Amino acid sequence: EVQLVESGGGLVQPGGSLRVSCAASGFTFSDSAIHWVRQASGKGLEWVGRIASKGNSYATKYPASVKGRFTVSRDDSKNTAYLQMNSLKTEDTAVYFCTRDSSGWGPLDNWGQGTLVTVSS
Amino acid sequence: DIVMTQSPDSLAVSLGERATINCKSSQSILYSSNNENYLAWYQQKPGQPPKLLIYWASTRKSGVPDRFSGSGSGTDFTLTISNVQAEDVAVYYCHQYYDLRTFGQGTKVEIK
To answer: B33: distance to nearest CA of chain A, Å?
Structure first.
């Protein structure tokens, strides 16, 4: 069974940094791209970044809203992906989901339960 | 960026009736080299992560009931829920994966 488990969320002050993790199991982690999607309370879904598989050179992509502040990385030896968030703003407050794209450039076919990041003073 | 616009924002349907959700992209998401539309639909119930229902605009994910169907091409797409059941109450999102990733704003489906 495919499982994605996020951790590391919490309360951080504006301007601060936080790293959240995504532990994967039940599939060949190294073959899949991993994406991060966030959802503010009562709002819709917003994609915040992707890291490709080793076969696709671990290429990363980000939307303009987080580019330069957020970094997606992975450690295939630990079956874990990371989202490093710097210069956090109050509007970054959201549940952060990690998701799997098993084909490399396809739909997001499995999702974790999410971890809550709150940016507040 | 490709903007995805769903309509309506919400709809109320009687049990057993049909629900139709539309999604329009700001540019074509049909990739000419493989003739595939890079469009997926997700269902999200309260307190849960989204769940993939449909991909490549019309391919149902294994295990998804066949009352869910997707159609459309280019810039205009539709998710149809035939014979709506109580467990279909949720928010539905369209999602393009043609260029980076963007989602529609969501459509809330309720029972009338």
So the answer is: 14
- Segment B23-46 shows an average pLDDT of 97
pLDDT of residue B54 exceeding 90, the answer is yes
Is the Cβ–Cβ distance between A50 and A72 less than 8 Å? yes
d(CA B9, CA A56): 37
Give the count of beta carbons closer than 10 Å to the beta carbon of residue B65. Answer: 13
At residue B10, the pLDDT reads: 98
Q: Phi/psi class of residue A59: alpha, beta or left (left: φ > 0; alpha: ψ in -120 to 50)? A: beta
Chains A, B: CB pairs < 8 Å: 54
The pLDDT value given to residue B50: 98
**pLDDT tens digits for range B89-112:** 999 999 999 999 999 999 999 999
Within 8 A of A70 by CB-CB distance, chain B residues are none
> Across the strands, what pairs with B108?
B10, B91
Q: Assess B103–A contact: CB distance below 8 Å, yes or no.
A: yes
Q: Which of B52, B100, B101, B105 to mutate to test the interface with A (most CBs of A within 10 A)?
A: B101
